[in-house]
Amino acid sequence: MSLANTPDPEARKAVVRQDLGNVLHPIVQHKVLEQQQIVVTSAQNSTIVDADGTAYLDAMAGLWCVNIGYGRTELAAVAAEQMQQLAYYPHTAMNVPAAALAEKINGLLGGDNHIYFVNSGSEANEAGFKIARQYMKQEHPGEFRYKTITRYFSYHGTTLGTLAAGGMGERKTKFEPLSGDFIHVAQPYCYRCPFGLTYPSCALACVKNMETTILGEGPETVAEIIVEPIMSGVGVAVPPDEYLPEVEKLCRKYGLLLHVDEVINGFGRTGKMFGHQHWGISPDIISIAKGISSAYLPIAATVVKNHVFQSFYGDASDNRQVAQVNTYGGHPAAAAVALRNIEIMQEERLAERAAEMGAYLMDGLRGLMHHPWIGDVRGKGLLVGVELVLDRQTKEPVTSAHIQSVVDFCRNNGVIVGRSGGGRRYSNTITLCPPLVITRGEIDRIVEVLGQAVASLGRQLASAA
Ligand code: PMP
């Protein structure tokens, strides 16, 4: 059954019945889905369309991923052509699109890397953890370096390993105990500094905390540090300029690998091709996903610097190959689509566009700060957070129900926005991460509707007082 173009209420009802009776949806409550009943059947640029014809401006690019926007039929043609030529072969041999994609990504990252293809951001991070451990075993056989230093309130994925690496308590408790090999340190979240300090007089207490932790654990037990350049899940926390270079220095000082999670930050999102490029650091391992194919097909990768690659390089008698396998890695159709997706980003200069449109979006949002419930507007490129508070002086956060009412208001008025997922704390930020092709007119609409939503929250708060 196709619901693509002409609204057909009966056909739509049948899909809703079929879905509610059969699909197990994660992360949302089924009773909420029963009420909302959004059936997305088509999409173009930054707009998704329900089977009943209702259009929504998608200010979250799906799940932070449709960077080049919806409806690029050219990518469908690339996939179809590749599937006719060679739909699949495992990465125990070479294939044409995977080789070309690896060369393209390597070129974007300075040319001294090798790329291991996987299928999701979680898998890319998980592979990075394992590569870091195996590398340390091979390069430092006398030591036992296996721990990962990570930050509280980070998000790195949904598998048991990446969940343990993540720092959002509420997402973890249902599955604990988790691996103890991930050691958490304070997050660089300046609006709510974990040390109660203010930048720059803080003298980067968060980096000092990281060093103290490394020393406390014993550097000879630590393999790597993982950081997302701009922490998205916690509500888009842009670190101070010295933060990432200082973290890199710690890695060099103590012989750790620097592992950067570019799953959201990557592929133009923050106004450069990769988030870490704002700070001139040189990671040893990079996890990429989402924007790599703008989610047209599932594909992700773990990028390793050549000195790491060299540790895995040997002949048939060697046992130093990357000791993991996945069925779909380097999938020819997904790789072909990802390659064309990146070419489109370059042809249309979408990273530069993200920088320009992001500045326009932030200007518009700062124009809403006459609403006293907006505590902070922050971001880089088209990765933006709007933190809502009950009191700008005390920074008391709005509740989870309040932030949800803003999300719901926006959706009911045709704009999809996100919310931070910090769990018990830090769930009070509206997140915006639209396709990089978003227009000024669409940004005006996002700002207008969000302004109305915040005003509505204000009326709600006033009437409850
Ligand atoms: N790292 C970060 C920073 C993410 O935001 C996400 C997903 N939102 C992941 C890793 C995991 O990616 P995936 O959902 O593709 O497994």
From TrEMBL:
GO molecular function: pyridoxal phosphate binding; transaminase activity
Sorted UniProt keywords: Aminotransferase, Pyridoxal phosphate, Transferase
Protein's UniProt keywords contain Transferase: yes
PROSITE patterns in UniProt: AA_TRANSFER_CLASS_3 (PS00600)
Names of required cofactors: pyridoxal 5'-phosphate
Family classification: Belongs to the class-III pyridoxal-phosphate-dependent aminotransferase family.
Protein name: Aminotransferase
Organism: Limobrevibacterium gyesilva
Lineage: Bacteria, Pseudomonadati, Pseudomonadota, Alphaproteobacteria, Acetobacterales
